[in-house]
Amino acid sequence: MANEFPHLRLERSMAMFEEAKRLSPGGVMGIRRPYNFVQGEYPIFIDKGYGGHIVDVDGNDYIDMLCAYGPVILGYDEKEINEAVKRQMDEKGFCFSLVQPVQNEFERKVVDLVPCAEMVIPVKTGSDATTLAVRIARGYTDREVILRCGYHGWHDWCVEGHGGVPESTLGLTDEFEYGDLGALEEKLRAHDGKVACVIITPVGHPLAKPVQAPTKAYLEGVKKLAHDHGAVLIFDEIRTGFRAALGGAQERYGVTPDLGTFGKAMANGYPLSCVAGKAEIMSVCEKKVFVSSTFFPNSLEMVAALKTMEILVREDVPDSIWKRGTKFLSDLESIVAKSGVPATVSGIPPMPFITFDAGPGEAAGTPGEKIYKARREYFYTQTIRRGLFIQPFHHWYIAHRHTDADLKKALDVIAESLELTMKKYPAP
User: Fold this and answer.
1) What residue spans define the domains of the chain?
2) Rounded alpha-carbon distances, angstroms, from residue 208 to 257, 320, 334, 376
3) What is the pLDDT of residue 36?
């Protein structure tokens, strides 16, 4: 019989957060704000990481299955990567008025690994990459409308919260539902002759909802519809790149887009992303489409990416994670089914997730709505107290340095937490 664990000691984290709120709006930004977790139960400041673990400023140690929201595909404190970066820093430097040779080496490697990549443009963040990709598509097609599906970052054309964004900008982006070819076709017809691109996360991962694995037929259908209407197809592979397979979801599912955006796992946490795609389309950046940044050509991140990709290939990391994740997902499904808690297991093997469902009489807008949300909050309270760092509204990740013991403990923690949840909030 599982027992409740006591509240974690988080005094230093909370004190630092009070100072942070005096220094910056909200203290921390965006998805890292405490209301995206369970307020008062989760740490806010992390001291260090090692392997597949993180340690907060109060000394609490966690198995980290959020993996910095995806960049950490290997593990924390990867000495081989860090040593390569330090050599570049010490022997050659990294920020110049011109580019260093490592840029060619990095771009060649992406071309070698990614199916759609004939040319590559390195940038820094996922939002940089997706925004550049849609600009390229607009430049290539001389059209303005963007059809999107999924989370693509914080820039004006795609940001979830619309404060500070002109209505004229918002009006040029239209959203369609993942998995529904009819809905996409309807949008393409509604904007006939005006759609520059269709941008989609090839694996559907809507906020706080089940992760949706694609079929090849669906992705092929999206590609055909986009091309039939003269639009560029962009796969946003910021999360799936180098994780679903070395060449991303496009390699795993066998459908090649016109452009792809990559980041996160590509450099194991170093800030680097890129747009990769067909030379004919990418070539608009030679003269017609402008892209420039002081820091885009910095070399430390490219060195980190090259070493990361070397390890990913050498240790067959994506396939290893896929195999271990397949077992994890199967075990997770059994645990949730046995618990009786109204919840859904979803995801692909590298990206598992649990979402909590409304039982009878618990739908949104009904008096029982608070119950299923309380289940979710209580479950994540129990998991964090037991040393498992996962997030209520974002899918999880499996990293290469998660040991078999880590994954077993994670499953044990989930099982105990579901048992307690069912006891405290019985299903109707």
Assistant:
1) 11-76+317-424, 79-314
2) 27, 27, 21, 11
3) 93
